[in-house]
């Protein structure tokens, strides 16, 4: 009996050593026996090990085996946890001399990336919603989406089952050249796509959205038709369909990407002067506007960085007027300050009102983060104070409209001072007025925080003190305002049109006599045209005023008819005249038949309490 009581204890020690060897991946039986013989009870351990390997002959040994197995598992887990703790201590000793930990390395990694580096996971709005509301609230009980065979996996947008089946549209991408590590690409239209493009231009001239719908039924992934019809749906308050059409356009363009084209590297370029490339810029811009309205500023910021990386030198859509607002809304203050520090020397970002005011607001927000060291918070507070004073001196016309939008009543000294008064707004150029109106209309919601208003107030009084003391910075800023901002470049007007900010649209000058189309607003004057639309048979333009009036009412009306004769036969000319008169009379009858007159109210009710029908 003593032997039996001692044997399980010895067996447990042997099993403990066996479990340790199993965790290390060594299953050599001879080595286990050699280690077991190091103790005084090695002989009994070997016997117990043989008993474990032989099948049990009765119930009693079987119970002992189960008991030993349970003890073996618990002892093995304890040793495994101890080994993991030892590994963690070893890693800490290795990382201690270098002063880097896993958390600090993760914090430094974004700064080492390029400024316009784009992350794939930040292009998906569902990931942002999951961070805000949790995965269960976003996905619910739905099962993972099954990929269809005919649907490609894309990064910009997720294809939907309700979309038509995708087939090659005739759009491809070609690599033009590579210079200093920067790759220049361009989209190309094949002949069949060019024919569809000609039909699309005809439908646009018809001023009938139904014609675009018919064209999309035959060519469901024609990009310009999707962009134009999206604007029509947005004007009709059908936001869901408008967004769906933009996503379908992005999917069509992404399926045509070159194998080397990368969205994340920030080194791939597209020239906006080529008409084939403009659809990609416009689709990305309209998509990020929808994302911002849906409450996804972080995803919209990533798309804004993508647009800027495609042509950072020219910035054809002038997304620099928008990127600061998205960075503040997404609370990416470090990115905004880094962009200002790296680009101020060669892009003069401080001369734009949006950067002049948004960057000090970002520094102030950084100074309010309690998890940062006190030294960093103090430095951010000093930079914010210095930059907001320079912004108020350079653009004094921003303060009063900004306070008015925030429903903040300034004190008597600020309200009565001419430096911030109405004279500051009237005396500035129209181009500067558009920039300031665009910034105030877009970002005034970020300045409503009481903490921000309390921080702004002493700096406004400090600027007034500098103005009364005739500080040289005040005179220098006034001189810059008179020389600069004489006229805005074309990309700023293009940005204002796409943004549809009513504050800035009111002061928009007439840029061209041609109508502004949503698929190509204000095309560049130095466009690189690869193919031209074939000339159609010209029609005489000697239409009467009455004919032009009916055409404004009925776009399909044509007094001259569809067939024109080149001959000088008087009989043919008279016949054409009769046909034109008949068409005019028919149009007048149709118009009069559709006019409905409202009956005046009856005098049966003398009190007049009833409403008109």
TrEMBL record:
Region (Disordered): 1-81
Highest taxon in the source lineage: Eukaryota
One GO CC term on file: RQC complex
Coiled-coil ranges (or none): none
Bias-annotated ranges (Basic residues): 60-72
Listed Basic and acidic residues bias regions: 12-34
InterPro entries named in the record: TCF25/Rqc1, TPR-like_helical_dom_sf
Protein name: TCF25 factor
Name of the coding gene: Tcf25
């Amino acid at each position: 009996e003593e032997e039996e009581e001692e044997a399980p204890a010895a067996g447990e020690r042997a099993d403990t050593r066996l479990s340790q060897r199993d965790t290390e991946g060594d299953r050599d039986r001879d080595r286990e026996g050699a280690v077991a013989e190091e103790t005084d009870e090695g002989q009994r351990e070997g016997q117990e090990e043989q008993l474990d390997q032989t099948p049990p002959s009765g119930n009693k040994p079987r119970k002992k085996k189960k008991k030993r197995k349970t003890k073996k598992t618990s002892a093995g887990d304890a040793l495994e946890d101890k080994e993991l703790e030892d590994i963690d201590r070893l890693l800490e000793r290795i990382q201690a001399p270098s002063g880097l930990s896993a958390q600090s390395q993760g914090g430094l990694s974004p700064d080492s990336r390029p400024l316009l580096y784009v992350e794939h996971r930040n292009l998906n709005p569902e990931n942002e919603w999951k961070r805000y509301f949790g995965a269960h609230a976003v996905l619910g009980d739905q099962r993972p989406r099954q990929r269809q065979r005919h649907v490609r996996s894309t990064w910009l947008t997720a294809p939907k089952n309700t979309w038509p089946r995708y087939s090659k549209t005739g759009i491809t991408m070609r690599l033009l050249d590579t210079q200093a590590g920067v790759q220049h690409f361009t989209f190309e239209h094949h002949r069949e796509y060019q024919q569809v493009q000609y039909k699309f231009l005809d439908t646009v001239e018809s001023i009938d959205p139904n014609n675009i719908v018919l064209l999309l039924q035959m060519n469901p992934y024609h990009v310009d038709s999707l962009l134009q019809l999206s604007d029509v749906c947005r004007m009709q308050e059908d936001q869901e369909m408008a967004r769906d059409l933009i996503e379908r356009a992005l999917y069509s363009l992404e399926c045509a990407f070159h194998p080397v084209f990368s969205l994340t590297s920030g080194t791939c370029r597209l020239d906006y002067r080529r008409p084939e490339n403009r659809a990609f810029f416009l689709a990305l811009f309209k998509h990020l506007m929808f994302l911002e309205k849906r409450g996804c500023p972080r995803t919209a910021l990533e798309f804004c960085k993508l647009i800027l990386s495609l042509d950072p030198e020219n910035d054809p859509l002038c997304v620099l007027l928008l990127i600061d607002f998205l960075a503040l809304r997404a609370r990416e203050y470090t990115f905004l300050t880094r962009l200002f520090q790296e680009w101020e020397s060669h892009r003069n970002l401080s001369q734009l009102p949006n950067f002049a005011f948004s960057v000090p607001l970002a520094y102030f927000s950084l100074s309010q983060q309690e998890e940062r060291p006190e030294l960093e918070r103090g430095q951010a507070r000093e930079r914010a104070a210095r930059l907001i004073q320079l912004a108020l001196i350079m653009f004094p016309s921003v303060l009063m409209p900004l306070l008015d939008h925030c429903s903040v009543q300034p004190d008597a000294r600020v309200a009565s001072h001419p430096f911030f008064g109405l004279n500051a707004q009237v005396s500035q150029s129209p181009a500067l007025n558009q920039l300031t109106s665009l910034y105030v209309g877009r970002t005034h919601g970020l300045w409503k925080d009481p903490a921000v208003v309390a921080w702004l107030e002493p700096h406004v009084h400090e600027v007034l003190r500098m103005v009364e003391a005739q500080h040289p910075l005040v005179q220098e800023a006034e001189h810059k305002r008179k020389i600069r901002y004489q006229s805005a470049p074309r990309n700023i007007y293009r940005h204002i049109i796409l943004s549809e900010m009513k504050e800035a649209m009111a002061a928009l000058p007439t840029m061209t006599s041609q109508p502004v189309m949503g698929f190509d607003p204000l095309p560049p004057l130095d466009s690189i045209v690869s193919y031209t639309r074939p000339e159609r048979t010209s029609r005489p333009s000697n239409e009467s005023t009455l004919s032009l009036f009916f055409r404004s009412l009925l776009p399909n009306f044509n007094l001259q008819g569809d067939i024109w004769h080149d001959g000088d036969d008087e009989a043919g000319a008279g016949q054409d005249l009769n046909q034109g008169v008949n068409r005019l009379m028919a149009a007048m009858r149709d118009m009069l038949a559709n006019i409905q007159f409202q009956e005046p109210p009856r005098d049966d009710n003398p009190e007049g309490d009833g409403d008109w029908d």
